[in-house]
């Protein structure tokens, strides 16, 4: 292994003038002025975990943090990723919140020659906010669900998501509300795609019924033990009861044969 002393001569670094990236990097990072006195002491490796840190020991965590800086945090992250969520619903809502749904305004901004009109109402240009909250079709779905409870959700999707997590001090209420919000967004997006690919269009009350069915199925699933577990538990219990009954009857019959009464205390003294 070469020492610093061997890498320089007459106060000049012995580095090729080639254009290789490594050589260019070395020329950039090495100090232009050599130390006044070089000696033959053992060289020591020092590591800068970031451009602003002091040279010292290598730290994998600090290097990782520098290479992968923490992104912006959003207040809608927690309301989206909760335990009882329906994964495909959560995924579509997450795509919407990250503005990753391929709505027509986005496709046109990429130069694609597609119509601009909303697939749900055919009256206004399609964008994420229009499609999922502002459209007269979507608005009817939203208000249809929350009007019955006397609730009026905010206007924008971001505000609705945050609002759904702070609706009540009871966690269960908020969970149901979050499941509903995700189901609405998912079904609106699915119906929009259905109109695009198969020209099938559903009136708002039909879509609302479908959302209600999804919610009922979800609640049923959460409240009932799966049938196969119930059956297996019942089978084991039945087996034990039958075995116990056989033992008791055989025991009493034996006692009867040896001259005792057929009715006797089960754990009597012989
Ligand atoms: Zn519309």
**Biggest sheet, open or closed, and with what strands and sense?**
2 strands, antiparallel
Coarse structural class? mainly alpha
Spatial shape: flat
Strands ordered across the widest β-sheet? 1-2
Percent of residues in beta strands?
A: under 5%
Bound molecules: zinc ion
Total beta-strand segments: 2
Low-confidence stretches: 224-232, 266-270
Q: What is the mean predicted local confidence, pLDDT?
A: 83
Task: Report the helical percentage.
Answer: 40-55%
Q: Can you put this structure into words, describing what you see?
A:
By secondary structure, this protein is an all-alpha fold. It folds into three domains: 4-67, no CATH class; 77-223, no CATH class; 236-270. It is built from eleven helices and two strands, in the order ββααααααααααα. The protein binds zinc ion. Zinc ion (ZN) is lined by residues 118, 120-121, 123-124, 130, 135, 137. Keywords: Membrane, Transmembrane, Transmembrane helix. InterPro entries: RVT-Znf.
